Amino acid sequence: MVFIFLLLSFLLCFLFFKTVLAFPAFLLGIDQKRLKEKLTSRKMDSKWGNAVESIDVTLNVEQACYTRDALSKSLHARVFDFLVEVQLHVCAVSELSRFLQKVS
After folding, report:
1. Residue 4's pLDDT is what?
2. CB atoms within 10 A of CB 21
3. To bridge 59 with a disulfide, which of 23, 52, 63, 102 should be the other Cys (CB 3.0-4.6 Å)?
4. Closest CA to 39 of 20, 53, 15, 12
5. What percent of the chain is helix, strand and coil (3-state, nearest 5)?
6. In whole angstroms, what is the distance from residue 12 CA to residue 6 CA?
7. Calpha distance 104→95 (Å, rounded)
8. How many whole angstroms separate alpha carbon 85 and alpha carbon 82?
9. Each residue of 12-58: pLDDT tens digit?
10. 7 pLDDT band (50/70/90 cuts)?
C-alpha cells in the first residue's frame, strides 16, 4: 500500500514538475528538458592521473532547492543590473538634451 502511494506521489510530482517548467523555459528561451536537467542534476568531473571522467549526479531535494534559489538570485541580479543600466542611459540622454537646450 505504501509503495503504491509513493509511486503515485512520484508520478504526480513528475507530471506537475513537467508542467511547471514549461513557462519559465519559454521565458528564458531554453528547452524545458535542459532546464529540468540543470535544476535536478550536476556534472562532476573526476581527474585521477591522466584519466578524466565526467559523471552526472542527481541532486537530492535540498540540493535542487539550493540550485533553484541560486538560479533565481542570478536572474534577479541580471534583471536589476539591466534596469539600472537602462535608467542610467535614460538619465544621461535627458541630461544631454537639457545641456544642448541651454547651449542653443
Report:
1. 57
2. 19
3. 63
4. 20
5. 75, 15, 10
6. 10
7. 14
8. 5
9. 565 566 677 888 888 889 998 898 888 889 998 888 888 888 889 99
10. low
